[in-house]
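USER:
Class, as today's exercise, take the chain set out below, and explain how the chain folds.
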Amino acid sequence: MFKDETGFDKRLNPSVRSVRIALIGRSNVGKSTLFNRMAGKRLAIVNDISGVTRDIRETETRLRGHPVTLMDTAGFESAKGDTLEARMRANTEKAVELADICIFIYDARAGLTPLDNIFAEQVRRSGKPVILVANKCESNAAHIGITEGYALSLGDPVEIAAEHDIGMIDLHDTVERVIDALNLHPGDDTFGRSDTPPVRIAIVGRPNTGKSTLINTLIGQDRLLTGPEAGVTRDAITIDHVWHGRRVQFHDTAGLRKKARVQETLEKLSAGETLRAVKFAQVVVLLMDAATPFDKQDMQIAALCEREGRAMVIGINKWDLVKNKSKTAKNLREATTRLLPQSRGIPVVMFSGLTGKSVDRLLPAIECTHNDWSAQVKTSELNDWLHEKIIRHPPPAVNGIRIKLKYITQTKTRPPTFVLKCSRAHKLPASYQRYLINGLREDFGLQGVPIRMYVRAGDNPYAKG
């Protein structure tokens, strides 16, 4: 199993029932702004462009002492068929089915639209408790729209301005009354299934490499929006999953293009969310298309993961489309060794996220890499190893004076970090440091994870105290 991370688990009481609240409404009425406001932090991307949110985004928080799972949804559209908008609508309808409470949001400044009436009728048929919210009520221009809200037959509209934090107390009062009336029983759907912190896994790569499809296959359900269009995913979506009794969190991310091609503000925000997911992940799966692996952009993403000290696994997707699999696999492993020498031994897993073929090999590879990334080596073993390395290959002499390596110790994990004490530390060549780092990889089984080594000068016994 994955090794547990140190520190306190700051999630809420796992024995308390979590109330699922879906924020719904047509596009650009302020659902994501309200989601961020109720969550107490910026999680969802907010932009004036219509249709920014596409997937169901969830977060756990507290509201007046009640554990709550908030769900941000895509704007309701009238589209049908197999279009992207139709798939977004299906996701929103799924959120309504999963929710205990629906918060129906409309734009009070713009007033009601025919789409608001169609969606309100659909929500009424669901039988779920609904709280009507008139958003953008910060000015007198919203008065007429507030009055129009009564025509939806969803109760009295709660007047708020989520962007300016106006009316949130009234909204929280209303939500609390509805939660109390639900009388949910503890244990129906716990707010956290385990006291063990999850392993955070970010799936990153270029656009259209199949990141969302892979996660859907891993969790066994169509949770994320997918399609042939490039750039379907915009937000970094977190999906909780249990594998062999261990909690994992998958972070689906937007595809990263070359920086010179990223011009639109929305795409810049999406790229920023992806970079943030990499920084907070423990293991990063760098997903590549089997037809075009090791693109320049792939190499830049790999370099980012190494700089951030993240454990990494390379996933080669769309393997079902490869004809000569044995030869291609051999070439890919050779390319990995040649192009990523700083992460020698990194696992390479080939699979098809669409068909599910060989996907079951990915999580064991992630587990192995995570354990290596979390490895702790005893100081006594390290110093015995250092003595053998010095005998085999002594450090070079500089200006006729040999550098003396005194001892080595591991100061932290995630990634494994070592401090080497020696004389004339600033003179120790980088090539000798690489010799020691490669030795650590091979002799202690730290293949494929970034290793940090800091060279420090030893204490001078003749220095004045």
